[in-house]
Amino acid sequence: MKWRWNKTILVMVSCFLLLQGGNVFAGSKIVAFGDSITAGYPYLKYGNGCTNCGGYELFLQYYLDWEGQGKKVYNYGYSGEYLTFSGINRIDSVLASTKPNYVLLMEGTNDLSAYVDPATVAYNVYYAAYKVLQAGAKPIVGLITPDTRYGSDWKRVGKTNSYIKNYVGSSPLMCLSDQNSALTPYWNSGYNYDKLHPNYYGYWIMGLYWYYALYTCS
After folding, report:
1. In the chain, where does DSSP find H-type helix?
2. Helix (H, G, I), strand (E, B), or coil: what is residue 102?
3. From CA 34, how far away is CA 45, in angstroms rounded?
4. Confidence class for position 2, pLDDT limits 50, 70, 90
């Protein structure tokens, strides 16, 4: 596998960690919610609320542990969640059982594989984020990551992300994490597993960007 350290990312990680005092959102419960990319495929298929498991969650937890203050990430990624509508139905029970402070929400790539309209996908993601707000938690919505199995944008990820930006950006109570822009420059240089899922190094980048989003949205 061809891979190289990216100096810009490393500098950003180091500087950002050094600047944090460790007391921002102390003791928070952070739920990662989504499909197989959230679960951490191919390393894990189902989160089921586990901690210190999955893909990006491992790296995000590492950064949080470096600070202390008892922040914990719970993995509720579910491989095979084929449509965002399924996520909308599932999220209620997760919110009720966990009572999180923050929810890292990223879904939609499977809908697009089934050629669901991008506007519909984006609205479903927004509606799931709205449910998070109703439960008293802060939603941070991740833009859909690349899928280059059949071309650079064969399933209109870019268009869908534009809709998501518009929906989420219309609410001052929701935040975005641009996971797509974070991964795209490195995607074909050893940062993906199967052109749909990130690999270990791709999840490392995702963990960093979720970490940054937690602070900028707090």
Report:
1. 7-19, 36-39, 56-67, 84-98, 109-113, 118-134, 157-169, 179-183, 200-216
2. strand
3. 11
4. very low
CA separation, residue 114 to residues 1, 82, 151, 155 (Å): 30, 9, 16, 9
HSE on the CB side for 77, CA within 13 Å?
A: 26
Please check whether residue 173 is in contact with residue 211, taking contact to mean a CB–CB distance below 8 angstroms.
no
The encoded tokens of residue 29 equal: 């419960």
What are the tens digits of pLDDT across the range 74-131?
Answer: 999 999 898 999 999 999 999 999 999 999 999 999 999 999 999 999 999 999 999 9
Domain ranges of the chain: 23-216
Say if CB 141 and CB 176 are below 8 A apart.
Answer: yes
Question: Prior bond to 42 cis, omega within 30?
Answer: yes
Q: Tell me: the pLDDT tens digits for 49-85?
A: 999 999 999 999 999 998 877 899 999 999 989 899 9
| Best CA proximity match to 161, nearest among 179, 142, 135, 143 | 143
Q: Is this structure's pTM higher than 0.85?
A: yes
By C-alpha distance, which of 171, 94, 182, 113 is closest to 145?
182
Query: What are the beta bridge partners of residue 177?
Result: 142
Domain 23-216 is found in CATH 3.40.50.1110: yes
Cβ distance 144 to 157 under 8 Å? yes
What SS3 class is residue 142?
A: strand
DSSP tally for the chain: helices H, then strands E: 9, 5
